[in-house]
Amino acid sequence: MLGHRIFGKRLGIVGMGRIGQAVAQRAKAFGLQIHYHNRKRLPHALEEELEATYWESLDQMLSRMDIVSINCPHTPATYHLLSARRLKLLKPSSYIVNTARGEVIDENELARLIEAGSIAGAGLDVYEHEPAVNPKLLASDRVVALPHMSSATIEGRVDMGEKVIINIKAFLDGHAPPDKVHPAMF
Question: Which of 130, 142, 157, 162 is catalytic?
């Protein structure tokens, strides 16, 4: 029953929006080195506050991280962002944590690489073909799998309900809803 300490390890955050920044804040408290890849670089002051290093090249970042946290949305541009080719860039000692969207990772390749020992393991809350989960991932003792419940808190659900009310009210008042889904997302 031995593991590794996370203090001093390199965390690569893919998607440094609101959630990615919250992950960085929490990880910083545990002594992880924060690295990130994002469509746009954060303002310098925010990078300093988070003690975060920006990587323009996702490939270069992935090859150097101990833990990779996926926090980007699923869009046509992010479908299989972590493709078979990119997953092979990870070190055999690396872990992937995905609480964003399952489609961002090539799940079959992830399962194959974990089974082969080419990736140390994964923590997953989302799956490419939900509600179905790749049986190899479920069978692996190196995968922690949750049933898409990362937002399952009373406070989180109250916040979601309030967002719905705000969006409906904005629409009924003749305004664009603040959380409008754009057709380009599909």
Answer: 130
Q: From the first residue on, what is the mean pLDDT of each consecutive set of 10 residues in the chain (186 residues)?
A: 88 96 97 97 97 97 98 92 97 96 95 97 94 93 83 81 90 88 61
pTM for this structure?
Answer: 0.84
Catalytic hit among 10, 64, 80, 148 = 148
CA-CA-CA-CA torsion sign (123, 23, 67, 101)? positive
The C-alpha atoms of residue 184 and residue 80 are separated, in whole angstroms, by: 17
3-class secondary-structure state, position 36: strand
Q: What are phi and psi of 96, to 5 degrees?
A: -115, 135
State both tokens at 53.
């290093």
Active-site residue 148, yes or no?
yes
Strands (E), the chain: 10-14, 33-37, 52-54, 67-70, 95-98, 121-124, 143-145
If one counts every other C-beta atom within 10 angstroms of the C-beta of residue 94, the result is 24
